[in-house]
Fold these 2 entries.
Entry 1:
Amino acid sequence: MELIAIPAFEDNYIWMLQHDGRAVVVDPGDAAPVIHILRSRSLVLDSILVTHHHADHVGGVPELLDLYHPHVHGPALENLAFAHQPYFGGETLSVLGQATQVMSVPGHTAGHLAYMLTPQDQTPILFCGDTLFSGGCGRLFEGTPAQMMDSLDQLAALDGRTRVCCAHEYTLGNLRFALAVEPGNTQLQSHYQHCQQQRQQGLSTLPSSIALERQINPFLRTRVPEVIHAAHLHQPHVTQPADVLGVLREWKNRFK
Ligand SMILES: [Zn+2]
């Protein structure tokens, strides 16, 4: 099974998996770059996975449906303008013959899903939409800090080798913020340098891994004393992980 990152818009990635000429795409906000890859590689679009309802994640679905008639899987708790198999989280579905776990990860949106596959003889793959980014997390448009904390805790508990396929190339900005939170985190410092080099060469910083995110992502580190201390500079006395996350998220919203 081959994992392909298709750049779209300014900084989105539409993730594709292909095996034996059949492909699945995740969050095709734009049909054109997907059609281009399908045609240039002679692939058939078998299915579409949708994590949440935002336009930059679903905008290309109707055109792809018209052209290829794929199976579409998406959140039950969100309004989507096309027919799809609805999921709440906790289900298992088959994608290109691979068992795929559906996870409920609300916070960015109310019904946000993540999809987790473990292809044979390969490390697991997580499609997490706008819930988890490398070095950061999604904005809380429809959920509470407590919901996002629960969602991120679920993701952080996955196998450390899991390849984390985020929907945006936000890594450098996120790592600059992470360094403001934890200036003494040496793994974070060296990962920031690595990602700067990647971007200078026009390369993606993704996929990340769960093990790496546990070391560098402040939103997965809300129980670490240095992170709690940094949150106290903005709001004294917060102790609960969800409250620390809420303070970090607000701080990040204003961070330049
Ligand atoms: Zn979104």
Note: The pocket of zinc ion is lined by residues 52, 54, 108, 130 (CB under 6 Å).
Entry 2:
Amino acid sequence: MNDFLERRELGRTGMHSCRLGIGSTFDAPAEAIEEAFDHGINYLYWGSIRQPEFARAMVNLSKMHRDELILTVQTYSDDPGSIEAEVEAALKTAGLENFDFLLLGNRMEKPSDAYIELFERLREQGKVRFMSLSSHNRPLIPELLADYEQDHSPYELLMFRYNAVHRGAEKDVFPFVPETSRPAIITYTATRWGHLLDASKMPPGEKPLNARDCYRYSLSHPAIDMVVCGPANHDQIKEAISALKAGPLEPDEREQIERIGAYIYKQYAPQYADRGDDEDVSAGLAAQ
Ligand SMILES: NC(=O)c1ccc[n+]([C@@H]2O[C@H](COP(=O)([O-])OP(=O)(O)OC[C@H]3O[C@@H](n4cnc5c(N)ncnc54)[C@H](OP(=O)(O)O)[C@@H]3O)[C@@H](O)[C@H]2O)c1
């Protein structure tokens, strides 16, 4: 069995996840998300845009399978004082009793103790179970990994950008991920906002990639426990699932994806760069 089909434990939570998770932003229908669960996908991320269809799937699946699901709610709030009400509203809107993860989204610095106190309060009330964080500041991630190893970090899951265009995590993050005693490592933007699938953005003579191979690219890195995908419909969910069965990339597939990624990095700057992008590995490759 290829290792994309195995589950990974998320930090010390005791929860085991499929290697692919689904984000709510692109509004796939509830039935398609429920079908993804039948194919093993159990991490559902009610993220930047909390779509009602996604909530419907979470509620439907929770009726029979709550213990197998890993449900995340994300907040971008800069005011820890507002998060309790936000989580309560999200629970009410979705019709759920609790979330497994509260994800502090887009944190450029270590969150203050006020966030941790807020989390403890929500945990005592049974509204969330664990804390996680996403960041566009890659150099922050090794700091959080070191804190975790010393038992000084509450974040059981860390999430950041990684794809064949943005490979900076290969130098800024992955070398610092310990074998054991570490939080789950999750990445997003596997398709680079769809650019890796866009025929008009390819180098001369190259065919565009498909989403399946973009997910395979990220999943092939051993440090990455899970890739969050953003399907917009049933077909896109089926294609994402096919990445699991296809397994790790062959060397020639990797070489092609990295060639296209380096070209796109050079031609199409990101609208929103990660901190650490200045010395991106892809930029180095593209300059050669
Ligand atoms: N916390 C954070 O800082 C953060 C940052 C980035 C992303 N996220 C979240 O992560 C989740 C995943 O987002 P992502 O951008 O990483 O997802 P993704 O799967 O890399 O990209 C989704 C995009 O790819 C296209 N796509 C997906 N599957 C496809 C397929 N089979 N064929 C053709 N096109 C396909 C969709 O395009 P069309 O819509 O054009 O069909 C969509 O624009 C989202 O919920 C997002 O909000 C969080």
Note: The two ends are 38 Å apart (CA to CA).
